[in-house]
Design brief:
By secondary structure, the chain is α+β, with helices and mostly antiparallel strands. It is 58% helix and 12% strand.
Length: 180
């Protein structure tokens, strides 16, 4: 009996030690080379650290950027959701912008959302320009949008990501103004 208990305890200890040994072998770290780190930096978009003089404008800007990216990704449902949040950001004196955001939230067609976004950009641009207190944002333009009439948008990155065409013409456009 004593031999059986000793054998069982020894077996448990061996299994325990063997399993710990495997865990140590699975853990490890991989060091990236300087070239890999630099390549990752270059492939990451340069984000502007813009700040605004009031909280409402900062919230509007963040929601606006989320809508812009949803349009880049042609995600109409995401536009609906974020545009609803955007509408809630406005106080009473910005009723026109609030109703435009609500129209985007209610629109189900991505092309209608893009058209409303372009109109909204025209209304919200002065707010961003007046309220930016730190950093930079970028006014961008696609000459081919809306049957050649063109369309502007404001981005937090200098890199072009076209909200009016999405994947079809992702990099169509140019920076027309850096707003500081």
């Amino acid at each position: 009996m004593k031999r059986r208990v000793t054998l069982t305890i020894t077996t448990i200890i061996v299994i325990f030690l063997a399993s710990c040994g495997d865990a140590n072998k699975k853990q490890g770290t991989k060091m990236n080379t300087p070239a890999e780190i630099e390549a990752k930096k270059e492939s990451s978009p340069k984000i502007a650290d813009a700040s605004f003089s009031d909280g409402m404008t900062g919230k509007v800007f963040q929601n606006y950027q989320q809508i812009r990216m949803a349009l880049v990704n042609s995600d109409a449902e995401e536009v609906n959701l974020v545009a609803g949040n955007l509408a809630e950001s406005f106080n009473g004196e910005k009723e026109e912008m609030k109703s435009m955001a609500m129209a985007m939230a209610d629109a189900k067609d991505i092309e209608k959302q893009r058209e409303l976004f372009s109109q909204f950009t025209g209304k919200v641009e002065p707010l961003f320009k007046e309220s930016i207190s730190e950093g930079a944002i970028y006014k961008q333009f696609c000459p081919m949008a809306f049957d050649g009439k063109g369309g502007y948008w404001i981005s937090d990155v200098e890199e072009i990501r076209n909200p009016y065409y999405g994947e079809k013409m992702l990099k169509c456009g140019k920076v027309t103004e850096t707003i500081k």
